[in-house]
């Protein structure tokens, strides 16, 4: 988890309703990419929230959340956001849609950090709408993403109340009305895939193909496994792969997965820190080298 997402207290609201008409009425948040539901992928990216409120029908999730529904059901994003805000208490709230398969904690941390910045000047410099502190920050990947954003809670409540007063309701109002009156910082994500969403079956197919691309498939797989198992640990994957190679070549191919399993088990017994993993991997790697050298000497 990024430093900023840890140090700025915040709640998170995940919008997980909607009719998914372009998906033929399918339950979009429950669709899987890389073996995990879209909703669980987004929940993993915002795990640093004090409270996480999901607006939509109840579904199975891998971590506890607060469930609420908008009134009326299917009332649109502004009605859903208003319902979610009623269950938040922190001064900053992260707002996310539930169909962002490549959202990472780094992007979450970037928008949270930008909320506390001071807007430069009075002429809209740095993407602001005036002087003073920003009232929120949203990702802009060529277009504003108000459902990939962080807002100060009170200005957000204020704007929703003003919209309700102006229109008499929030149901069915377009999302674009929300950012217009807020002083927002635009954040360009370092990860170009962070804002990719899944609105159509073509989008879902593209996301499932992207996650299996050769250059990133190992990282994606390890991230998914760690999230599935509830593991928060950064390890030297190169060292573990080298160990697996040495065990496979110097002992026997089945020794590779069994050795890495034993390394993990031993590291967990020591305390489970990255240093524990590195030390147990080092010992096993040295053993594999000695084993191979002994076999070579015998053959010589």
Structural commentary:
With 300 residues, the protein is of the alpha/beta class. 42% of the residues lie in helices and 15% in strands. The chain contains ten helices and eleven strands. The strands form three sheets. It has a seven-stranded mixed beta sheet, sandwiched between helices. Strands 2-3 form a two-stranded antiparallel sheet. A hairpin with a 3-residue loop joins β9 (136-140) and β10. The longest helix has 26 residues, at 274-299.
Distance between the termini: 51 Å
Arithmetic mean of pLDDT: 86
Low-confidence stretches: 1-6, 121-130
Beta-strand proportion: 5-15%
Query: What is the 3D form?
Result: elongated
- Going by helix content, strand content and strand pairing, the class is alpha/beta
Main sheet record = 7 strands, mixed
Number of strands: 11
Number of helices: 10
Whole-number radius of gyration? 23 Å
Strand arrangement within the widest β-sheet reads 5-4-1-6-10-9-11
Helix content, binned percent: 40-55%
Q: Give me the strand/helix succession.
A: HEEEHEEHEHEEEEHEHHHHH
In short:
By secondary structure, this protein is α/β, with parallel strands linked by helices.
